[in-house]
Amino acid sequence: MENPTEEHFKRELGLFDAAMLVVGSMIGSGIFIVSSDIARQVGSAGWLILIWVLSGIITMIAAVSYGELSAMFPNAGGQYVYLREAYNKLVAFLYGWSFFAVIQTGTIAAVGVGFSKFAAYLFPVMSEENILFQSGGFTLHAAQIVSIITIVILTYLNSRGVKNSKTLQSVLTVIKILSLLGLVVFGFLLGAKAQIWNTNWADMWATKTYVQDTASWLPISGVALISGIAAAMVGSLFSSDAWNGVTFIAGEIKNPKRNVGLSLFLGTFIVTIIYILANLMYLAVIPFDEIATAKSDRVAVVASQYIFGNIGTLIIAVMIMISTFACNNGLIMAGARVYYTMAKDGLFFEKAAHLNSASVPAWALWAQCIWASALCLTGKYGDLLDFVIIIVLIFYILTIYGIFILRRTQPNAERPYKAFGYPVLPAIYILLASAISIALLFTKTSTCGWGVLIMLAGIPVYYLTKPKG
Fold first, then answer.
1. Is 208 helix (H, G, I), strand (E, B) or coil?
2. Could you identify which of 13, 121, 269, 382 might form a hypothetical disulfide with 17, taking C-beta atoms 3.0 to 4.6 angstroms apart as the criterion?
3. Which strand (E) or helix (H) includes residue 324?
4. Which position has the higher pLDDT, 467 or 89?
């Protein structure tokens, strides 16, 4: 049933806008960087591509499973609402708490810093080396200021209404898709070398890890291999994340029962294909050892230098600036709708429950902006992303298991769309994501353990702040 509070939201986003939000939110700077770390962890071309294919399949299974939930609850709040309906307000609050504390704001901060790092290629004054203030352990550099400015600008734009931000999102995302495909095509046409391709695929399933201290490869198997695969998948799953953002703004999508689920499928499918093509291009252009040892992991910069020569660095810098700007626009737009819905349930600051004259939750947008900006200043966004992935996976598992719960507890509810491949595909997702989560907890206990603790810290907060009665 449509919630009367949603009437104030304007349904201004069509299927194309929704699909572009999915694609734009997913493609940040990851595809330009993380293949380097994956190569170091697993050590061969076959495994590098397999990791990306697996991540794409896992993401698409999750996305088409969410289609059922988005059609059942086509209102603002997305995943938060699904968890509330399948479980209870506590589980939903723990998601919302983690979402505001780390998941969305930490990702916005990291993407903002990604923008500033590559902007420094064009304008060196914006770099991390340009230290503006230092006191004790605190250092303020230009890159942090630039990232905060971009977050503030995008928040302001989003506070003026969904129409402007959807136009910016769609235009930048189309540019992003075309430029990435252009890089792939030029890579194969101008930079590909048969000798490099053949050498990279010669021992395609050899599993080894790169030891940076000795600059050498070490064969791995058994537990070490499982550990390597789990560590490698952090990067690829991150690069494929944020697809669920479109569910948060379902209250502003035309015909959400059809378009939310369809945009999830189209968006994740497009990104998966682009990511696999980009990695095949890397393998055609760059010797494998250079993929693994790319300076600052900037594998796309190395590829672009092989393809275009010295100007390649600038081409990639501009592409990543466009990519991260569009990515953050999508993250900022979607995130505020979760806090709005939580506030409607009495589980977030009351002011977040109000829409401004432009029919958007402006107070929630600015609260998100302030916290994300604060995270930019900590300089700990790299650690935050490690914290994030474990929490994200746990809530994806719970949400998809929620489909099984709701089939049992609400058997007669209207389901305009049913999860593709139910119960097999959702069950496969739960098993795979659980295995990755367990492997991460064992192999990255220091960071992923903190992620779980941040999430659990929400339990006392919930009982201290929830409305009485």
1. strand
2. 13
3. helix 312-344
4. 89
Q: Compute and round to an integer the Cα radius of gyration of the chain.
A: 22
Q: 196 Cβ partners below 8 Å, 6+ apart? A: 283, 284, 285, 286, 287
Q: Supply 92's token pair.
A: 């939903």
Spell 156-189 as b/e; 16+ CB within 10 A means b.
ebbbebbbebbebbbebbeebbebbeebbebbbe
What is the rounded average pLDDT for all residues in the chain? 90
- Sequential DSSP letters for 100-159: IIIIHHHHHHHHHHHHHHHHHHH-GGGSTTSEEEEETTEEEEHHHHHHHHHHHHHHHHHH
| For residue 466, pLDDT beyond 90 | no
pTM over 0.90: no
pLDDT at 75: 82
Strand partners, 141: 131
